[in-house]
Write a structure and sequence with these properties.
With 104 residues, this protein is of the alpha+beta class. It has 2 helices and 7 strands, in the order E-E-E-H-E-E-E-E-H. A hairpin with an 8-residue loop joins strand 4 and strand 5. 17% of the residues are buried.
């Protein structure tokens, strides 16, 4: 890419690094955010401040916003594979919660 500045041509050769991917997922099921927050210390849910629960995933380092309607926003992942792994952590936790709820 060339830019003209003060009569001179300046050639710009930017380099890129992906540092954050934002992804959206739909689980097609309602979530009990209170119950999930009780199940895991990695989930913060304060509905007075924000309508979603924040699930901090440690590996891969990312954060998931979980909403009652089953929608998920994944932030902080660096690759598509990291997005998949982070969402898989949430799915495993949700399955564990739903299995425990059936046993009650």
């Amino acid at each position: 890419m060339a830019v003209k500045k003060a009569g001179k041509h300046i050639v710009l050769k930017p380099t890129y690094t992906i540092v954050n991917i934002v992804a959206h997922a739909e689980l097609h099921t309602d979530l009990d955010l209170y119950g999930l927050a009780k199940l895991s210390r990695d989930i913060d849910y304060e509905p007075e401040q924000f309508p979603g629960a924040i699930f901090k995933v440690h590996d891969p380092k990312s954060a998931l916003l979980l909403f009652k309607n089953g929608k998920i926003i994944c932030t902080g992942a660096r690759t598509k594979q990291d997005v998949r792994r982070a969402i898989d952590h949430a799915i495993a936790l949700i399955k564990r919660y739903k299995a425990g709820a059936r046993g009650r």
